Automatic annotation (TrEMBL):
The active site is at S74, K77, S129. The keyword tRNA processing does not apply. Belongs to the peptidase S11 family. It comes from Thermodesulfovibrio yellowstonii (strain ATCC 51303 / DSM 11347 / YP87). Transmembrane segments: none annotated. Keywords: Carboxypeptidase, Cell shape, Cell wall biogenesis/degradation, Hydrolase, Peptidoglycan synthesis, Protease, Signal. The keyword Membrane does not apply. This is D-alanyl-D-alanine carboxypeptidase.
Length: 342
């Protein structure tokens, strides 16, 4: 009987130790702190600058260097179209100029002398990001692209995008052209007030037809339109210097949210980072997480002032001339030595 009692006691002690161990693991894993950590949305954005903003309050839900000035690429075209639609009727006909036709651009190629409606040029500029269409709209509005750019810069100042400046209507690279992700959300918010812009950025495919019957079947560069039902629309951008850029508008739990990214590494990462921003916005808006703003020094960030860059470029050109001169002298000396040897 005593042996039985001792065995029972040992069994009970082992059971108690096992239960304590299980309880410890439970507390460790399911403690309020652990649960709180579990509900938080971790965001890992590749790009140097990104933001998600609540349209209703203007509150930044997530930000990574939201006020750093970077090249805008073709996100510029949102402002181009806004300014054009303030002056031109969508049914107005525009003849493609030599300058517009010769502007470096993606397909479809617009040919000098072709005639398109403003409406179609808007779709070409916003859906397919055709630079020739942007230049054509600028010329139809203000006569010359240079005059149109002044209207663009006035427009962004009026809507409060004070850290934005343009030098052309297309977003092609050049010194002195920049924006911020925070400014891009302001630009998107105003752009969506134009019914034609809202319609264009939400359209997946569209058929363009010139006055002489030439047809272009275009597809939106925003691939998330096929993947996200809650997306209102967006505008992509890319140049080698700007890298991949995107500004968009979403409905998140019945709330309007703007996202913007500048300088992402590739197009696939751009979509992933945008989705991260939307998920983070949802977590914050539903009270599961707190807003986050991260500030850091990025090597890839474009400097605000271009004067130093211009001086540097002059120095590089001077150095290249010196190298060429030295190389030429050496080649002449070598040739002379060779003749002596022969």
């Amino acid at each position: 009987m005593t042996g039985y009692f001792n065995s029972f006691t040992r069994f009970t002690c082992k059971g108690m130790r096992f239960m304590c161990f299980i309880l410890f693991i439970y507390v460790l894993v399911y403690s309020p702190e652990a649960l709180a950590q579990e509900t938080k949305k971790q965001v890992d954005i590749d790009a140097p600058s990104a933001v998600a903003v609540d349209a209703q309050t203007g509150k930044v839900l997530y930000g990574k260097n939201p006020h750093i000035k970077l090249p805008p690429a073709s996100t510029t075209k949102l402002v181009t179209v806004m300014v054009a639609l303030e002056k031109l009727d969508p049914e107005h006909k525009v003849t493609i100029s030599r300058k517009a036709a010769r502007t470096p651009s993606v397909s479809p190629k617009l040919v000098e002398g072709e005639v398109y409606k403003v409406r179609d040029l808007v779709y070409l500029a916003l859906m397919r990001s055709v630079n020739s269409a942007a230049v054509a709209l600028a010329e139809a509005t203000a006569g010359r692209e240079e005059n149109f750019v002044k209207l663009m810069n006035d427009k962004v100042q009026k809507i409060g995008a004070k850290d934005t400046r343009f030098i052309n209507a297309s977003g092609l690279p050049g010194a002195g052209q920049y924006t911020t992700v925070y400014d891009l959300t302001k630009i998107m918010s105003h752009a969506l007030a134009y019914p034609l812009i809202k319609e264009a950025v939400h359209t997946r495919v569209y058929l363009i037809r010139s006055e002489n019957g030439k047809e272009h079947f275009i597809q939106n560069t925003n691939q998330l339109l096929w993947a996200e039902d809650n997306m209102i629309g967006g505008k992509t951008g890319y140049t080698r210097r700007a890298r991949h850029c995107f500004v968009s508008a979403y409905k998140v739990n019945g709330r309007l949210v703007y996202t913007a990214i500048l300088g992402d590494t590739n197009r696939e990462q751009l979509w992933k980072d945008t989705q991260q921003l939307v998920e983070k916005a949802e977590y914050v808006l539903t009270g599961k997480d707190e807003p986050v703003v991260k500030l850091s020094e990025e090597k890839s960030v474009m400097p605000v002032s271009y004067k130093k860059n211009q001086k540097l470029n002059k120095k590089v050109k001077t150095d290249k001339k010196k190298v060429k001169k030295i190389s030429k002298t050496k080649r002449a000396a070598n040739a002379k030595n060779n003749k002596r040897t022969i």
